[in-house]
Amino acid sequence: MGKIIAYLLAVSAAYLVALGYINTGLSVQFEPFRIGANCALTGGLAGCLYCLRAVYLNACVRKNWDLTWGVWYFLRPITSAGSGAISFVFMKAGLLVLEAGTKTDATEFGFYALALIAGLNVDNFIRKIEEVAESVWGVKKSRASELCETGKEK
């Protein structure tokens, strides 16, 4: 458990350092990628927070810590960062919206809010993306999603 906690804290620190660098020291040529990178890092931080909460709940509250979940604790911050990045792409493309009307004074915080949600709840975010893909392009849900929903492979 100690290694997992240390890993999660180290990844969180790396994400925070990267956020600081991106928002203060990034050269002008990379400015178009700043919001997308911030979304990925925000999603990753949310994933780390989710995992740290899971460690606390499983080890201290429920008293059912199980090392077989170790891989999940190591991969979740990475998949959360990926979900944060994907949320940016879908919002930028106009395929996901946060509200019905448009605001002329909108900031990038909407992107970060969605990235945070995507990082916290990767499974439901991916389900939502698959629903968007199915309705927009007719792409059926993946077999992995069907397996997660039904518990058995078709």
Assembly status = single chain
Main sheet, how many strands, which sense, barrel?
A: none
Structural class given helices, strands, pairing? mainly alpha
Strand content: under 5%
Low-confidence stretches: none
Shape, per Cα inertia axes: flat
Tell me how many strands there are.
Answer: 0
Helix residue percentage: over 70%
Domain unit count? 1
Radius of gyration: 17 Å
Give the termini separation: 36 Å
Arithmetic mean pLDDT: 88
The succession of helices and strands, N to C, reads HHHHHH
Number of helices: 6
Commentary on this structure:
There is one protein chain. The chain is mostly helical and 154 residues long. The chain has one domain. It has 6 helices and no strands. Helix 1 packs antiparallel against helix 2 (34-61), helix 2 packs antiparallel against helix 3 and helix 4 (109-120) packs across helix 5. It is flat. The relative contact order is 0.13.
In short:
The protein has 154 residues and is mainly alpha-helical. The chain is 71% helix and 0% strand. It has one domain (2-150).
